[in-house]
Design a protein that fits this description.
The chain is 5% helix and 45% strand. It is mostly beta strands and 375 residues long.
Length: 375
């Protein structure tokens, strides 16, 4: 049995460890991706993505929504429902993918701007752990967003906003990073692109401390086709870097503040900058196969659809007795050498395949003898 003294010492040790665990938040050990995984929101979010913020009351985040010819991630926030993203309110919905490196270069394409009523919020969110100069670690976010201006009649209705927020229990604290005199005079109604890059450096205050500098761009013409379309956003001198921010997730945020306008925002894709998604938003390819004369047989396709663009597909004609194959027609054009009952085609978009058949000619040479008549 434990003596009373040993039991007392053991309980004291347990209590000390418990108090330390409560007093100092510990950043979790991460086993996440160190590359931006491209995603075009054509389907449900991957299972390793997380949704944060306050949902409900009409606030939703939905992937795979059709917008014209695109698939997108949709954020919906009703009018009068505050979903902010600041030190005073951090309830804005966020869709985030795992990411573990402090160095990143991410691009998001948005199909629309955050409206004209003050103040919609739309942009890139980076989640992680902020290591303060005092040696403590707190949960935090980096914010890089387009905000609707509080002076929408100045012909520059949108302003850039970049900040660090970190949780100093029981409140959040913030550090502004953008030059608030800059605006987005060219955004229009969208689409537009946002890009954020972090890069290593040392603190300019003479300490030589390692830091991460942040660079912020926007574009209104596709920058994946022409990188010169990027327009850099000014950052505050001396506030464009952060000491020791350990990234755990990167993604997209939408919200509102000010007059609490309704917001429906669409993100088209997220990529590693400079690495566009091949066939982004390409609709599944389909093949409709038939026989020119239904009595002549049937066509089977292998494998079953739907298909990805460029997928190889085999078509097989099963002829009925009394018919023969003349040719194949694919999307209105006759295929060369199309006399074989089995052909291979490439699926791309909506395809129409027809097996052209005809009855077999039975006018064969023969003779019939009838008395007094010879044929």
């Amino acid at each position: 049995m434990l003596s009373m003294k040993k039991l007392y010492n053991l309980l004291t040790l347990i209590l000390v460890f418990a108090l330390l665990a409560v007093a100092v938040p510990i950043a979790p050990v991460s086993a996440q991706s160190s590359t931006i995984v491209p995603f075009d929101f054509s389907t449900n979010l991957p299972s390793n993505w997380i949704i944060e913020g306050e949902l409900g009351s009409g606030v939703t985040v939905t992937s795979g929504v059709t917008v014209g010819t695109d698939k997108a991630l949709r954020f919906t926030i009703p009018s009068g429902t505050r979903r902010g993203f600041s030190a005073s309110n951090i309830s804005a919905p966020r869709a985030l993918q795992p990411y573990e490196s402090d160095t990143f270069d991410v691009t998001v394409k948005f199909l629309n701007t955050p409206g004209t009523e003050y103040a919609g919020i739309l942009g890139i969110a980076v989640k992680g752990w902020y290591n303060t100069t005092g040696g403590l670690t707190y949960p935090g976010y980096l914010r890089f967003t387009v905000d609707t201006s509080d002076t929408p009649n100045d012909n520059t209705p949108y302003e850039p906003f970049a900040s660090l927020y970190y949780f100093l229990d029981p409140d959040w604290a913030g550090i502004g990073m953008t030059d608030t005199t800059q605006d987005y005079p060219q955004l229009g109604d969208g689409p537009f692109w946002l890009r954020v890059r972090s890069e290593p450096g040392t603190a300019p205050d003479g300490t030589g401390d390692p830091v991460r500098y942040y660079r912020f761009w926007f574009a209104v013409e596709d920058p994946t086709q022409n990188s010169s379309n990027w327009i850099q956003i000014g950052m505050k001198s001396g506030s464009d870097y952060i000491r020791n921010f350990d990234v755990t997730h990167i993604g997209i945020v939408a919200g509102n503040t000010g007059d609490l306008p309704a917001l429906t925002a669409y993100a088209d894709y997220i990529i590693q900058t400079g690495s566009p998604i091949p066939n982004e938003d390409a609709l599944p390819a389909t093949i409709t196969a038939s026989v020119s004369n239904p009595a002549g047989g049937s066509v089977s396709i292998s494998p079953d659809g739907p298909y990805t663009a460029g997928q190889t597909v085999t078509a097989t004609l099963s002829l009925n007795p009394g018919f023969e194959l003349v040719s194949w027609t694919f999307n209105g054009e006759e295929l060369p050498g199309g006399g074989d009952n089995v052909i291979v085609i490439l699926a791309d978009g909506a395809n129409i395949l027809t097996a052209n058949v005809r009855p077999v000619d039975l006018d064969l040479p023969f003779s019939v003898y009838l008395p007094g008549i010879s044929t």
